[in-house]
Design brief:
Largest sheet: 2 strands, antiparallel
Strand order of the largest sheet: 1-4
Number of helices: 3
Helix content: 25-40%
Oligomer: single chain
Structural class: alpha+beta
Radius of gyration: 18 Å
Number of strands: 4
């Protein structure tokens, strides 16, 4: 019996939560969910900011224009929808 070559697929999802862009999410789901729900999700994902703190020194404030809110209840659900 002849052996067939095996095909292996590997997917690195280690940074998957950081990949979502709000504009892409909006394009993907604007016709698939109610306007109100889409607005709430986009509002949840927009206007987020962060600072980096090292040894009591803080950086300037940066805007965050992509990614899910990790540690939130909605984050894994949005990730599942997006993937």
């Amino acid at each position: 019996m002849e052996k067939k070559p095996a095909i292996l697929y590997s997917v690195d999802l280690s940074a998957a939560f950081d990949l979502l862009k709000q504009c892409i999410f909006e394009k993907m789901f604007k016709d698939k969910m109610s306007e109100g729900l889409l607005f709430l999700i986009l509002d949840f994902l927009s206007n987020r900011k962060f600072v980096v703190e090292v040894e009591n020194q803080q950086s300037k404030v940066f805007s965050l224009d992509r990614g899910y809110v990790q540690g939130s209840i909605l984050g894994p659900k949005l990730f599942t929808l997006y993937m």
